[in-house]
Amino acid sequence: MKARRAVAGTVGCVLAIGALVVWWRFDTDIRRARARVAHGSLLVTTRCGPIEYQETGTGVPLLAIHGSGGGYDQGMAFAGALAAEGIRVIAMSRFGYLRTPMPSDASAAAQADAHVCLLDALGIRQAAVMGGSAGAPSALQMAIRHPDRVTALVLLVPLTYKPPALADSAPPMPAWVENAMMRLIGSDFLFWAAIHVARDQVIKVVLATPPELLNSTSLEERARIDAMLTNILPVSSRAAGLRADTAAGKHLAPAPLEAIRAPTLIISARDDRYGTYASAKYTAGRIADATFIGFEQGGHTWVGHDAEVRAAIVRLLRPSGGS
């Protein structure tokens, strides 16, 4: 009995120490994540309410509208490099993300109006607009509702409507997977633990990207995807927006795409597990003279095509190479 108690005591001590180490690592990482998003952005008062944003560069204004799990930091992580190409990047946090509050009306139309309110507050009359993933609906609505304010439109792996009769490019997410994902995005600790013990599965489900693509891509691309995943933390500061995006994605409606006159670029990948390829192609076909770039592989994070995507955006915004 004494021996058994000694073994049990030893096991208990080991487990307790292990739990303390795990908690210390989590606490360290979440403090770092909170500190990262606490600096570098501004909160501006607009007639549509407070909106968080960050900007860099000079030249052609580009409003970067982030997708699910984002915020101004996600928009800047992708679009910030465009500042070197003579583009003024304004990355904002949508409703319910980081410091931008969730209003009673968080529809795509209301978000589009808020985008215009931000431009007004910054003294910008016209801008190109780029909506990624769940940021696409409000980007589309901005081009429809405020055509005089949008000089060009970019939709990157966009969450957009397609007719039900049109074949899906990916099977719908099973209910149990969606439920598990919603649990993850409701807890900083659960999300942190998931990306440490089941990283490939999180890349597959949350980033909707085949994880095997990372085995054959560059170190730079792997680092980009790792940062995209890790920088979702603190997820608790994005949970309200994530829940709203998930709900909105189930009720996408047709829009008068034919009314859009801004030069438009739409990009997706056939193996995007969120199925944006089919809807992106449909959307491009309904907008006059829209350019559609479809990759066979790349997933929702366009793995292996980052430089190509940036170059295509620069060509759209600065076709002559001038300022």
How would you sum up this structure, described in words?
By secondary structure, this protein is an alpha/beta fold. It has a domain at 42-169 and 240-317: 3-Layer(aba) Sandwich (Rossmann fold), CATH 3.40.50.1820. It has 11 helices and 8 strands. It has helices at 2-38, 72-79, 108-121, 136-145, 175-184, 188-197, 199-205, 219-230, 239-249, 276-286, 306-317, and strands at residues 42-46, 49-56, 60-65, 87-92, 127-132, 150-156, 264-269, 291-295. The protein has an 8-stranded mixed beta sheet, sandwiched between helices. Helix 10 (276-286) links the parallel strand 7 (264-269) and strand 8. Helix 3 (108-121) packs across helix 4 and helix 6 crosses helix 7.
Number of strands: 8
Alpha plus pi helix count: 11
User: Widest sheet: strand order?
Assistant: 1-2-4-3-5-6-7-8
The 3D shape can be described as globular
Mean pLDDT: 92
Write a concise keyword list for the protein shown above.
323 residues, alpha/beta, Rossmann fold, eight-stranded mixed β-sheet, globular
Task: Give a brief description.
With 323 residues, this protein is α/β, with parallel strands linked by helices. The protein contains eleven helices and eight strands.
